[in-house]
Amino acid sequence: MKEEPIINIKNLYKAFGKNKVLKGISLTVKKGEDLVILGRSGSGKSVAIKCLVGLLKADKGKLEIFGTDITKLNYKQLNKIRLRIGFMFQNGALYDSMSVRENLTFTLKHHADHLTEENIEKQILEALDSVGLIEAIDKMPSELSGGMIKRISLARTIIIKPEIIFYDEPTAGLDTITAQEISELILSVQKKYKTTSIIITHDMICAKMTGNRIILIKDGLIYVQGTYKELENSSDQWVKSFFFATNQYAAAPGFPA
């Protein structure tokens, strides 16, 4: 029996006034898949994800997660779905007034208020260990580097044991080496927690390292999709433009093969 996709978007339309951002996007994501979405700024990548979890209301279309069309759910029903989904935001979105421990505790208690203090501590340490930052447990966000903030943000994402993770520009603002480390962490998380992921990025190295499949959005529609290698070898000039800068670094030490 064929397995149903864990995410199914069909004919998604979204406009803001006269600005038609999405013009009939359709895509599916299989369980355990890491899907990368690429596109120029303003192409609607983040809008599609926000519609998918109900942060924005779609103008038209079917948006199914775990086999349920979220456009037909009330607030309480939608929140039940969201409890199974993790988000890693572009800026980290940590609370500046809370330590790393407090940030993770807040997230855990928000999702599962029945946990004992012992269980909370155990899960915090496990999440921080998964991103290699146990030693930062009592630091404040102001004491962390950009790369460390990304790691803590990822720890906060996985601490709720999500089945799906949405990554919004996970390597933005990072140097090449740190960005590569974050990409490796995304792969490690997928392997350890068996997550399904959608990764929105402009970083072609991140796309190459993390994506089982890549979708390019242009003018509100899916322009092309395939593996990194398939798209890299495309004869289409617009598609090739995404890979030009990356190929300049291909000979650099440590570049992923």
The residue fraction in helices comes out at: 25-40%
> What is the percentage of strand-forming residues?
15-25%
> CATH class of the domain at 1-72 and 194-252, anyone?
Alpha Beta
Element order: H for helix, E for strand: EEEHEEHEHHHEHEHEEHH
CATH architecture of the domain at 1-72 and 194-252: 3-Layer(aba) Sandwich
Structural class: alpha/beta
Mean pLDDT: 88
Q: Largest sheet, order of strands side by side? A: 6-7-8-3-9-10
Unreliable segments of 5+ consecutive residues: 248-252
* Gyration radius, rounded: 19 Å
Strand count, sense and closure of the main sheet? 6 strands, mixed
CATH superfamily of the domain at 1-72 and 194-252: P-loop containing nucleotide triphosphate hydrolases
Q: Count of DSSP helices?
A: 9
Number-wise, the strands total: 10
N/C terminus separation: 35 Å
Bulk shape: globular
Q: Which fold name is given in CATH as the topology of the domain at 1-72 and 194-252?
A: Rossmann fold
